[in-house]
Amino acid sequence: WPRTWTRWLGVVTLPLFALGLRALRRQDRAVHAMALTTVIATVLVAFLLQFLRATYEPRYLLGAAISWWLILVAGAESLLDHSRPAQRWLGVLVLTALLGLNLVSIYRYRADPDYGRTSGYREAAAHVAAQAKAGDVFVTNTPDPCWDYYLRALDMPRVMVPLRAGDDQEEIIASLQGLGEQYDRLWFVPQPGSSWDSEGVASHWLEYNALRAESARLQRIEMHVYHPERTASAAMAPLDAPMSNGLALTAHHMTHNGRPVTATGAVEAGEQLEITLLWHAAEPVSESYTVFVHVLNARGELVAQHDGLPVLGTRPTYLWRAGEQVLDRHPITLPTTLDTGELHVLVGMYDSETIERVHYQGGNDALTIATLSLP
């Protein structure tokens, strides 16, 4: 349920809850004590747990569900037993409403992926196990004991970044840099709204400083595979394309809808492409250059593009140091209607002020880095 509906349902059911407690106390004090204790204990434990570890989720309150519904039904039953017809009709309406809520909940529980019986841990764990390699590490940005359970049979280190609640940005970045020096790939599962990393520092740093080689969404779980700068070039298709401005394109990596593009280059209309380029600065440059990634059809017509300053606008070329390697990601969404045939992906640079293109060694002002096929 949306949060606003949940809050209103809580407010509306509180009077019925109080009425049910009163009825149970009159009927059976032992049942009354058990039900009330279960509800209070479950809520209290869930509340206190979030101060120890940021693991709270609404489903943790399900332990009190039976007692909660027992009290609500007792309240509705007391209305049905009332001598006044109006009160009895109110009891009928309340029971009907409670039954309706349960039917909707059961439907969503079984048919709606957003309210499913599982968040996707089992599927995500199977996905990791199928692709895990030596030198991998599993990283989350919030404490989640579910991963300890589902990955218990997998011989892969598991690390949390931030290491501690309250770590500042510098400490988070230092932790990730240390992991990049120690491991070849980072399996990262971001938790939106994590109280341990409320500003999303870990996600942001990885997006801008590592190669996102693959992404997957398994039900409600999102995960990414990153190569740190140390191993990024080995995971990319090599290129040798020096330019007249002292920069060079040395490698590229491409995904479609989060999956690496295969050797056949098969893609579909409407898919999201992610092209990551690896630039090398042989010497510093004083100008600001815009990188373009253009997708042309078999007739040479432009069908999709992404033009922008490197690293999503955060690393202009005049800041590059001599000898530096820069990972530069460009997202492109293919049109939903495309003719079948080949698509050519071209990459180049132009002066941000004059729009004059920079030439590669050999005279071309654009380099075809991939040919895709559209069935």
Write the layout of secondary structure elements.
Blueprint: H1 3-27, H2 29-52, H3 65-80, H4 85-111, H5 121-131, E1 136-140, H6 145-150, E2 158-160, H7 169-182, E3 185-189, H8 201-209, E4 211-218, E5 221-227, H9 229-232, E6 237-242, E7 247-256, E8 259-260, E9 272-281, E10 289-297, E11 302-308, H10 310-313, E12 325-333, E13 341-351, E14 367-374
Parallel strand pairs: 1-2, 1-3
Antiparallel strand pairs: 3-5, 4-5, 6-7, 7-8, 7-9, 9-12, 10-11, 10-13, 13-14
Helix pairs in contact: 1-2, 1-3, 2-3, 3-4, 7-8
CATH superfamily of the largest domain: abc- transporter (atp binding component) like domain
Main sheet, how many strands, which sense, barrel?
5 strands, mixed
Q: Categorize the overall geometry.
A: elongated
Which structural class should the secondary elements be placed in?
A: alpha+beta
Q: The CATH topology of the largest domain is what?
A: Coagulation Factor XIII, Chain A, domain 1
CATH architecture grouping of the largest domain: Distorted Sandwich
Low-confidence stretches: none
Number of strands: 14
The radius of gyration over CA amounts to 28 Å
Oligomer: single chain
How large is the count of helical segments? 10
- N- to C-terminal distance: 41 Å
Q: How is the largest sheet built, in terms of strand order?
A: 2-1-3-5-4
> What fraction strand?
25-35%
Specify the helix fraction band: 25-40%
Report the mean per-residue pLDDT as an integer: 88
CATH C-level label of the largest domain = Mainly Beta
